[in-house]
Amino acid sequence: MVQVPLQQMGGLVPAPAIPGDGEDGMVYVPPMYTKPRAIIPRYRVISGLLSLLIVAGLLCSGVGYYLNTSGKLAALGQFYGFVPPPSVKPKETPMLADPKSNPDFGSAYTIINSASTNARIDPVSHASAQPANVFQVNQTIYLTYSVQRPKKPGVMTIKWYTNGTFYQSPTPIQVATSAITGYTTQKYTQPAEGTVELYWNDQLAIRLYFVVR
């Protein structure tokens, strides 16, 4: 074997092939862009979205039906102010019966022998001008009375009652041995069956009946 110097071995190595020169070698392929294929098909996405909307609609309908039948829907609407509260009809006040026309008399009737309830009195003499026993709410009730000449001084007391329950009593009146006449007033702010009693030294003289409608 004959040794070839290293300087001369470069001529023995074949030159690289150039694309397009017709010789065998590497083939050059230019880069190409291809659109990536969707992972989930479009029709599946649309069908899934439709299914979700249908399920949500059915769920909302079921919840709305439950709230409506249970009455909670109206309560929520009233709480947030969307639905006005139902109008409440005022309770009808029962018609009060006509009062007893005749008064009751007690042991002191010989001293307080006259009394009446009135809708109007004479502005000068304060005598009864319109006796009445049926009044309206907040109407002034005039009570006129007459005390005969007692043998000795005493005290006249007036007591007003509402539906059998004590209501009010004005300041007791000190009476000497002379005869007197006078009046007092009262108002009722609600319908009631009323009575008024006049006493002489804590003994009943007259009991009157009236009604306020």
Please explain how this structure is put together.
- The chain is built from two helices and eleven strands; from the N terminus they run ααβββββββββββ.
- By secondary structure, it is of the alpha+beta class.
- Among the domains are: 42-80; 104-212, Distorted Sandwich (Coagulation Factor XIII, Chain A, domain 1), CATH 2.70.50.
Question: What's the quick description here?
Answer:
This protein is an alpha+beta fold and 213 residues long. The chain has two helices and eleven strands; from the N terminus they run ααβββββββββββ. Strands 1, 4, 6, 7, 8, 10 and 11 form a seven-stranded mixed beta sheet that branches. A four-stranded antiparallel beta sheet has the order 3-2-5-9, with no helix packed on it.
Which structural traits does this protein have?
Coagulation Factor XIII, Chain A, domain 1; alpha+beta; 213 residues
Question: Hey, roughly how much beta strand do the residues contain?
Answer: 25-35%
CATH topology title of the domain at 104-212 = Coagulation Factor XIII, Chain A, domain 1
Poorly predicted residue ranges: none
For the termini, the CA-CA separation is: 149 Å
Q: What would CATH call the homologous superfamily of the domain at 104-212?
A: abc- transporter (atp binding component) like domain
What series of H and E elements makes up the topology? HHEEEEEEEEEEE
If you compute it from the alpha carbons, what radius of gyration comes out, rounded to the nearest whole angstrom?
55 Å
Helix content range? 10-25%
Average of the residue pLDDT scores: 82
Oligomer: single chain
Please describe the biggest sheet, giving its number of strands, its sense, and whether it closes into a barrel. Answer: 7 strands, mixed
Number of strands: 11
CATH class of the domain at 104-212: Mainly Beta
Query: Which outline best applies?
Result: rod-shaped
Structural class: alpha+beta
- In the CATH hierarchy, the architecture of the domain at 104-212 is Distorted Sandwich
Number of helices: 2
